[in-house]
Amino acid sequence: MSKIKAENVNVYYGSKQALFDVSIDIAEKEVTALIGPSGCGKSTFLRCLNRMNDVIEICRVEGSIKMDNLELNSRKLDVVRLRENVGMVFQKPNPFPKTIYENVAYGPTIHGIAQSKEEMDQIVETSLKKAALWNEVKDRLDEIGTGLSGGQQQRLCIARAISVSPEVILMDEPCSALDPIATAQIEELIDDLKKEVTIVIVTHSMSQAARVSQKTGFFHLGKLIEFGPTDKIFKNPDNQQTQDYITGRFG
Amino acid sequence: MNLILVTFIVLLAFTSYYFGRKKALVIQSSQRLTALPKFYGYYLAAWCAAPALIIFILWSVFEPSIVKTFILQDYTDQNLTKNELQLIYTKVKALALGNYSGNITNFLDASADKYIQLKGIANSAKVAIILAILIFSLSYAYRSVQKNDRMREPVEIFLKWVLFVASLGAVLVTIGIIFSLLFEAIRFFQAVKFFDFIFGTHWYPAKTFVRDGQPDPELMKDAFGAVPLFAGTFFIAFIAMCVAIPIGLLSGIYLSEYAGRGVRKYAKPIIEILAGIPTVVYGFFAALTVGPFVKEIGNAMGLEVSAESALAAGAVMGVMIIPFISSLSDDVITAVPQNLRDGSYAMGATKSETVKKVIFPAALPGIVGSILLAVSRAVGETMIVVMASGLAANLTMNPLESTSTITAQIVVILIGDQQFGDPKTQSAFALGISLFIVTLFLNVIALSVVKRYREKYE
């Protein structure tokens, strides 16, 4: 079933066009991987899905992006509500310089989700458990989040993202700053999370795309070259460029 | 004479630079150079100028005291005090230079002749020695160049020493200022008890002034109480901060987070212009515009307002300090990493929530640092207070009355005639050093807070 349907999305940074007529269907409760060489527009596309491009003054988005028949690329859209539904995990772990507890409680607080202290404790605990971090931090929830290791920080950011029970989580190269063990933990986590949420992940690692995703899109120079089931893209792509990229002949 | 000598040394150094470089190019034709040709020039120039200039400076420093010793040798058998000897030497010097107007005794005349003679010998000796040194050091350096010795290292070592001497000078001047403050303050505290100064509540140093005599020690007890000055200083600084912190901080947040690039481009320099207005201008603005305005409003409300009120001075000082806080806090807020903002926005936080919950706490140490720097600036501010808040040291907490500060009192003490040995004059040094300690303390705290903040995002 389709969760997000993008049609003819064009993105401009000032006069420079970054995305050309991208159309893509992202299925519900699946992991969709976006791959491609640096600067190909995959992160730009990802940031369209929760309107993070609004933060960049010179950025302009055209086209239609529908999530459950709600037009995302519209002036009237309530961006706060959208971002409550579409969480995001960034390339570099970016916990707030606050305690671990406050980091996870941040979203529920600003959206007024928890009614009482007990409820908030419960949300923090479940989020940390889902992010596979609870056992490591349950005795030091009042320590500063930035004091954790890189992999723990990234899982804390995932816990922060899922604390408001979003329907979609966007991940922008979530493992590029992590070592292989932390990467394996995050990938395992992605596998668990897809039972409940739709995940879109941008990655530079093709093996990671092959391991975690069900669908893969290949971007090149701002265009979506090929999109389809991960198996097909990696084993038998239709497009010669995709074939070259996957086998490491360019990019 | 001295000017000609120095010019000669400098010109010779420039010439030897070109000469050394040219020589290097000649050497280059037969063997490999040890450094770039310009190093040969630097080497020769340094050897030419440095020894001669060092000797020149040392000579100029020591010559007067040596001449003085020779002159005063003739007077040693007369059992004179140090001050009398000094007076004689001054007379001799004046006579020798032809601008003495007292009685000329034979003794003085003889000494003056001796002075002129000694000066002449000293001058020719100086020229001779310096020329000798120039010839010696240049020929030594030239031989090294000819032998094609290594040139790069000596030049680098020389530059290192030049830099070292420059920083040494800066440090020594600072230490010198502190010590001169300290010694005069110690002499003040010999006349006035330390606790009378720190805890006394009356500041009226003019009371102790007695022409050509020692002031009454009883009077001293009650004239140098610094409490009203400290209270006034911090009170006015407090009023200033009440104006500067809210406006500065909020405008800093606006500039860094809300303002578009166009607004920021023009607004920031305009705010920074406030910091470039001379404090004297702020002073008469406070005295002639704000002071009477405050008085009028106060009178209209039925309050008794002094024309020179702490409120007017503090408010104008606050305006002066706004750019410090707004510019510094703008910088520290901009320095908060963008990915923290992204993290907050991606959670669905609004701009104000992001500022309040993420950016402000993250930037807080830096903001506190900037505020402390602004406080030390306010505490040290002089002109505004002198012009707008009066010179009477009232111990008051009423912002509508006039009060005075440490800096303003130092001005009062040191303008006009003063005697150097007088406790009234020396009290300026005691005030100066207490002010120095207060601002030093604030600066140290501010810098350590800012430093801790910097380490956070490394």
Short summary:
Chain A is of the alpha/beta class and 251 residues long. Chain A has 10 helices and 10 strands. In chain A, strand 4 (59-67) and strand 5 (70-71) form a beta hairpin.
Please, could you describe this protein's structure?
The complex is a heterodimer of chains A (251) and B (458). Chain A has 251 residues and is an alpha/beta fold. In chain A, 36% of the residues lie in helices and 27% in strands. Chain A contains ten helices and ten strands. In chain A, α4 (117-130) packs across α6. The longest helix of chain A is centred in the middle third of the chain and has 14 residues, at 117-130. Chain B is mainly α and 458 residues long. Chain B has two domains: 2-150, no CATH class; 221-456, MetI-like (MetI-like fold, Orthogonal Bundle). The two termini of chain B are 58 Å apart. The A-B interface holds A 50, 52, 55, 57, 79-84, 87-88, 90, 92, 94-98, 106-107, 110-111, 146, 157, 160-161, 164 and B 260-261, 337, 339-350, 353, 357-358, 361-362, 456.
In terms of topology, how is this protein built?
The complex is a heterodimer of chains A (251) and B (458).
Chain A: E1 2-13, E2 16-27, E3 31-35, H1 42-48, E4 59-67, E5 70-71, H2 79-85, E6 86-89, H3 100-110, H4 117-130, H5 134-137, H6 150-162, E7 168-172, H7 180-193, E8 198-202, H8 206-212, E9 215-220, E10 223-229, H9 230-235, H10 240-246
Parallel strand pairs in A: 3-8, 3-9, 6-7, 7-8
Antiparallel strand pairs in A: 1-2, 1-4, 4-5, 9-10
Chain B: H1 2-28, H2 37-72, H3 82-97, H4 106-146, H5 152-191, H6 194-199, H7 217-223, H8 227-258, H9 261-276, H10 279-300, H11 310-334, H12 338-346, H13 351-380, H14 383-388, H15 406-414, H16 423-456
Helix pairs in contact in B: 1-2, 1-4, 2-4, 2-5, 3-4, 5-16, 8-11, 8-13, 9-11, 10-11, 11-13, 12-13, 13-16, 15-16
